[in-house]
Amino acid sequence: MKNFCFFIAFLFAACLQMLGQELKVASFSIVANDLSASIEQKMDLNGMPCALVKVLVLDKISGVEGNIIGNAIDKGTEKWIYLTSGSKEVKIKTEKYFPLHLIFSHYGITALEAKHTYVLTLTALNESNMEVPLNLKDPEDQVLMGLKYENGSEVRRDYKKAFSLYQKSAKQGYPEGMFKLGECYLYSRGVKENIGKALYWFTQSANKGDAQAQRELAILYDQGQTVEKNEKEAIKYYKKSVAQEDVTAMTYLAFHYLEGDCGLAKDYSKAIELLNKAKNKGDAEVFGFATKLLADCYRDGTGVTQDLHKAFSYYKEVEAKYGGGDLKYELGRCYELGRGVTKNINEALEYYQKAASFNNKAALLHLGILYENGNVVKKDLKKSFEYYKKAAENGSDMGQKWLGDCYYDGQGVEKNINEAFKWYSKSVEKGCVDAYSDLAYCYSHGEGVEQNLTKAFELYKEGAEKGDSLCLSNVALYYYCGKGTEQNFKEAFKWYKKSAEGGDAGSMNHIGVMYKNGQGIAKDYEKAIEWFNKAIKAGDNIAKYNLGNCYFSGLGVKVNLKKAAMLYEESAKGGYEKAQYNIGVCYKEGIGVQKNKIKAKKWLQLALKNGYEGAREELKGLR
User: Is the pLDDT of residue 103 over 50?
Assistant: First the structure.
């Protein structure tokens, strides 16, 4: 009995020793060239990108306390933890060791930053005396031993020893050794960062058939952040990795087939095939991404027969498992439009609100539109303004433009030109094409900023080069008038032509004027008349006046005073003061119409009221 008690006591003590081991932080640092946080991005509850902490520890993580998003993800040698931007500490629990409370500032990091990857290396205090022989010669064994040193598995973690072993394995031509050596150079593990050497060893490994190296190279060339973007090389290595059934590469390649970019022609059937494979074989993250893309395809009938019910089912499946604002927004659209499910506005609004709570930009903008228009919900301009404001504050370029419109027009908020200018500026900085004309207008008229015609012209031109219709016509006008730049009729004609080809009626009229006057192009009355007629058909009022002048003077057509008077009167009714003056004179003198002093007086007074001073003299003879 005494011996049994002793055995129990010994076993209890041994268990306490095993469970009572403490973890030690070997290192904690940011890894500038690790793009995992951007490539495999997670969003916090406000829809903002998270930071990623890769934990290297020889144990399973049983719990994490802190601003964590989702659960810890077991990546084999690494455990991934997503934390909100600005996090300053985290508490990690493992199965074998006491919990570790990590305060980032103790390691020179004030707070985590969004889209940045950090590596936390942990070792147990009682591992410090464990060593292994380094005389291994087999390249595969060298990699296995290198992994032990890299991950602190059965030995004290030592990146330099891991690097040395990978280097020996790589020099013997072993593909995985080459890949691991490339990772060391890329992520500064045991050696100083060297992108060129990382790329060299990844390439050597990939060309020997290592699927993970092929995928890594493809992503690096595709993203173009760490190395120079090379679409041809990206696709080459994606295809090689896919040939070895790498599901992450399948999803990326499928995306490019859907978009028809990266040097690939659109191939929907290949994309669908790859996505189905990735969905069925992939881990949780690949499953979510692949299923979302498949849902989009079934929604739009891209590469498959359109099946709105299937699309809705896929969106619902992924949203239930992983949440996320973008999926909630898609479900809202399904309920609003009756896509694959019975139309239900209340359900739609609930999903939009849920998506908006994640700061999903599309949902915030859509709710703003709904409350502005008042078709689906009761019109509420204050609510519309608040949603646009939230979208703008979360970085939506269109939200910033529309918020600027609210401040400019006093819609849902007190009119504030300075605030309008501020948000138009932010929107342009983010690349919103629609905001260029608004910001240029502010500079042109000195609203919210000191008047600067040169700056206005530059903005109009930049917006025009990006295809904005308002900017196209305005840059043409600035060249025509020499406003903010030197007068240049040829440039004016070129930009008016581009604007007219986009359907702008006013630009069509201006082209007619330039053909009529021979400005920037050889004088051609027939073409002038052709463009005036195009402009009239497109709805331009001033073109009626200009065409009337052609009939009045016989330019490109026979003189027809009756037709001229008719066109003048039509343009006058549209509010053009010069046409009002002309038709007034016609009625006064009986040109193309019967004399009528009452009508003459009416049109001349209207012309004068609208600012045409020449009408004042003509009115004297009618008193």
Answer: yes
